[in-house]
Structures are given as C-alpha cells and as structure tokens.
Write a structure and sequence with these properties.
Blueprint lengths: L6 E5 L3 H13 L2 E5 L11 E4 L1 H9 L2 H5 L4 E2 L2 E6 L4 E6 H8 L4 E4 H15 L2 E3 L4 E6 L5 E5 L4 E4 L1 E4 L6 H6 L11 E7 L2 H6 L17 E7 L2 E6 L2 E7 L8 E2 L2 H7 L5 H8 L6 E4 L16 E3 L2 H4 L8 H20 L5 H30 L5 H14 L14 H8 L3 H13 L8 H15 L6 H5 L3
Parallel strand pairs: 1-2, 1-12, 2-8, 5-14, 12-19
Antiparallel strand pairs: 3-7, 4-7, 5-6, 9-10, 10-11, 13-16, 13-18, 14-15, 15-16, 17-18
Helix pairs in contact: 1-5, 1-11, 4-16, 11-12, 11-15, 12-15
The structure holds flavin-adenine dinucleotide (FAD).
C-alpha cells in the first residue's frame, strides 16, 4: 500500500492546534506548528474536559502527563440566585453512561500536557512565529510567511489561530466574529482552602462529616449566572453596548454585579484575588465553508466556529475537530485519498456538529438567564424530579439531559470520522448501516436510565 509523506503546517499552538498535531503524527504525518506568542502557555482559569474529550486525552496518553492536576468532581447543583437548589446531576452517572471521565483542569496544566506529548511525538513547535501571509501555489502546496520574514511550504495548512484568525481573514475577509448579545464573563479562581476555612462557605466544599467534596455549582439569574467548579469561576453578566475584547476590571465592579446573590457565593467573590478580566463571548459563523477552494487550507476550532461558553464546549469542540481531521488525513498518508478528499470529509462531518454545539451553548445561556416568570417556573419545575434522585426523560438542565449528554458528551470524534471514512471508501455506502448506528444511540440513551453501577456493562459493549 503506498504511503505518502504529508507535511502539515498548523497556525496557532492553542489547545485545538496542539491536540491536532498529536493526532496527525499518530496518523503518520509530519507537523510544524507556527505560534505567534514568544512563549507557550495558556492564560485564564479552569476548563472542563467533558467525556467527549477526556477520552481523547486518555487515548493519546496526555492524561498521564497531566496526572493529578486533572480534577474529578462528584455532582452538579443547579441553584436559583439565592442558593435554593432546583436541579441536580450526579457526575458519575454521566461518566458511566458515556464511558469516560469528566475532568476539570487548569488551562495551563492542560496546555503543558499537550505540548509535552506533542514534543515527545516529534511535532516541531516554532514560537515567535506570527503568520502574516498565506499563498496557494500552482504546485498545490501552500506558502506561509511569518511577520519576521521566515518562509515555509506545506502540503496542508490548518488555521487553528483562534477567534481573530489570520487564516480565516485570508480565506473569508467578510466574516466578523460578534457577540450575539451583551453577554460576557469574568473568570476567577479562589483557592479551595480559603473557601474551606470560612464557616459561611465551608458547607459548599465539605460534607457533614468534614470530608472534602468537589462539586460544580450554578447560580442562575436573569442578569447573569455563576458557574463554579472547584472554585474556578465563570461569572456571566451583560454589558450594553456588547464588548468584543478582553479587558481588566475592578474587583468592586465584580462584587456589585452579584449583589443580592446567595451570601455564600458573595463571600467567595469577596475572596477573588486582583487581576480579573472581562471576556467577550464571540460567535463565528456558522460559515458556508471552512476551507480554500483547493482544499489545502482549512480552519479548526475557534477560528471556524467560536461559540458562547455556556456548555463548556469551545476548546472541546476544537479538540474534536483535530482528532477527526487527523483520522481523515490518515487516508492521504495511506495513499487512499487526496488532501482535498480528506478536507471534504472533515467539513462534511464536523460542520454540522460544530453548528449544533453553537446552538446548544446559546440555548443553555438562555435557560440559565431566564427572567423570573412562567418560563423560569417551568424550567425549575422540570428539574425538580432530579432533586428526588429521579432521572427525567428530558431536562432543561442540559448538563444532565439524557439526549444532550449523548449528543455532546457521548460523542466520539474518531469513531464518527471512521464512519464517514468507511462511507467514502465504499462509494458513499457506510460499512455499518444506519440501523446499527440508530441502535447504538438508542442503547446509549437507555444506558442513562440504568441504576448506578450498571452503566459500564453496557458502555463496554459500544
Ligand atoms: C469565559 C470562558 C470560559 C470558557 N470555558 C470553557 C470550558 O470550560 N471548556 C471548553 O471546552 N471551552 C471553554 N471556553 C472556550 C475556549 O477557551 C476556546 O474555545 C478555546 O480556547 C479555543 O481553542 P483554539 O485552539 O481554537 O484557539 P485559541 O485557544 O485561541 O488558540 C489560538 C492560538 O493561535 C495563536 N495565534 C493567533 N494568531 C496567530 C498568528 N497570526 N500566527 C501564529 N499563531 C497565532 C494564538 O497565540 C494562540 O496560541 C471558554 C471560553 C470563555 C470565554
């Protein structure tokens, strides 16, 4: 079987770009990453690694490198602004139904782990290399130039250069990422010990026997919400006019914004150390295409489909893109398809999925910010059975809604790519027929309703 040498240039060493580089090397390709920053790293606070991507971290051995910095939590509590509990998800149930863990990790630890595995795999990462120009050559290759005048030629260029992507601006200059509403977010971390030693806040992190518990807590209100996991906090609020850049804010403003909330979370906000920023929530697309007409330049992650953060799926979706695209490129390396075929398969599989994630993220933001009234009352009533330990067929608590759990967290990007590849190799007919896929999905959803401990038996069959 012929094997082709494939040299891929990735623009941007963010979470999406670095994971993609690891997956391409695993598929047999060569990768050079060009990163604008003068040193590698990630700013910001914690990030959720939901089961759809924790399974990739495990497969690629990245979890081993990050080690104990991957934190597991036990439950999700949905609350009204005053702290009253209205919904509940046992995280173990999601993990068992999807067959993979749900972690929280600091961005910095995640990124370090990705970079270490990429380097060990032989990925070349060039820092201080801001890409300023791309040219599609007659030969079918792509020429890339950095601001400092270095020149490269690649068989394929992947633009994983974030929401202000130069690659996207080159391909689609008319596209402008925008905040869909005035909604934006502060991000902050309060050390766990600070929360634990304060008698008012202790009960949020300790059980009645004084054992440490790690939970995800959401306080919902019309003018904002607070999502705190391990006291990594995302504090949603609204600004008029909407903001489109990250900017530092005064702590007094953060405190004022959450006046009238549960006294426990107000006390935790008082403990936020200085250095908080306001983050815009910019949405890109959905675009009609993610690639150049020759299909030798393609977008990935926020560059293609930045989304609101309400389902914690932005980075996760970038990682899924990378895993999927690499699987398609394995066809090129194996001599069974052209780069154009691989990019077409990638767009066919990933564009609808990314668009779904954008929609469900926006929807969850709407649910969490409902004004007091009939819709909010209906939301709270629908979640109520969760407090009695029941598992409703559908729930507005989307982190625990069975359909949403399977669509977001049960998804396996590599498995999906293999399905598209098998269809491609069989002239459009998938090897596994649609009925088998439907059955698998039905099994996964049924799985959600099994008593605790029964999930793995079924998950292991899938
Ligand atoms: C408040 C908030 C909370 C969030 N929480 C979560 C969460 O819990 N879970 C989750 O999955 N997602 C979350 N997200 C979303 C997530 O942060 C992004 O979706 C993710 O970081 C995108 O990754 P990326 O690799 O596509 O792009 P980026 O992380 O933006 O990386 C782009 C990289 O490209 C580089 N670059 C830019 N221009 C150039 C150039 N010209 N040449 C070379 N390099 C260049 C940049 O320096 C950067 O390193 C959250 C977002 C916000 C705002």
């Amino acid at each position: 079987m012929p094997t082709n040498d494939l040299h891929v240039g990735i623009v941007g060493a963010g979470i999406g770009g670095v994971l993609c580089s690891i997956a391409i090397v695993r598929a047999g390709g060569r990768v050079t990453i060009l990163e604008a920053a003068q040193q590698l790293g990630e700013i910001g606070a914690g990030i959720q690694m939901t089961p759809n991507v924790s399974r990739l971290l495990i497969r690629y051995g990245i979890d081993k490198v990050i080690g104990n910095d991957l934190v597991r939590f036990s439950e999700l509590n949905m609350r009204r602004k005053d702290g009253t509990k209205i919904g509940y998800t046992k995280i173990q149930r999601v993990e068992e139904a999807t067959g993979s863990p749900w972690w929280l990790v600091h961005r910095h630890h995640l990124h370090n782990g990705l970079v270490e595995v990429a380097r060990q795999s032989g990925v070349e990462i060039l820092i201080d290399s801001r890409v300023s120009k791309l040219d599609r050559l007659q030969t079918g290759k792509v020429a890339v130039e950095t601001e400092k005048g270095r020149e490269f030629e690649f068989d394929l260029v992947i633009g994983s250069d974030g929401v202000q992507s130069i690659v996207r601006r080159t391909l689609f200059p008319e596209v402008k990422p925008r905040p869909p509403t005035g909604n934006c977010a502060f991000r902050a971390i309060v050390p766990y010990e600070e929360v634990r030693k304060d008698p008012l806040t202790r009960e949020l992190v300790e059980d009645e026997n004084g054992n440490l518990i790690k939970t995800m807590e959401v306080w919902m209100a019309p003018t904002g919400y607070i999502n705190a996991k391990d006291f990594n906090m995302v504090l949603s609020h609204f600004r008029d006019p909407p903001v489109d850049t990250v900017c530092p804010v005064d702590l007094e403003e953060v405190r004022r914004q959450y006046d009238g909330y549960d006294p426990r979370i107000r006390r935790i906000i008082e403990k936020i150390p200085p250095g908080v920023s306001r983050w815009p929530l910019l949405v890109t697309g959905p675009l009609e295409s993610w690639s150049s007409p020759e299909k030798n330049i393609v977008l990935l992650g926020d560059a293609a489909h930045s989304m609101t953060n309400h389902m914690a799926q932005g980075a996760a979706t970038s990682m899924e893109d990378g895993a999927f695209l690499a699987r398609c490129l394995s066809l090129v390396i194996g001599g069974k398809a052209t780069v154009g075929d691989a990019v077409t398969l990638y767009e066919k599989g990933r564009m609808p999925k990314a668009s779904y994630k954008q929609q469900v993220s926006f929807l969850n933001g709407w649910i969490w910010h409902l004004p007091d009234g009939p819709a909010q009352e209906a939301r709270d009533k629908e979640m109520e059975p969760e407090l009695r330990g029941e598992v409703p067929m559908r729930s507005p608590n989307l982190y625990g809604d069975p359909g949403c759990v399977q669509e977001c967290y049960g998804y396996d990007a590599e498995k999906h790519a293999d399905f598209e590849i098998s269809a491609f190799l069989n002239d459009g007919r998938a090897v596994r027929d649609g009925a088998a896929i439907q059955q698998e999905r039905a099994d996964q959803i049924a799985n959600w309703f099994l008593p605790d401990g029964e999930h793995y038996k079924i998950a292991s069959r899938l």
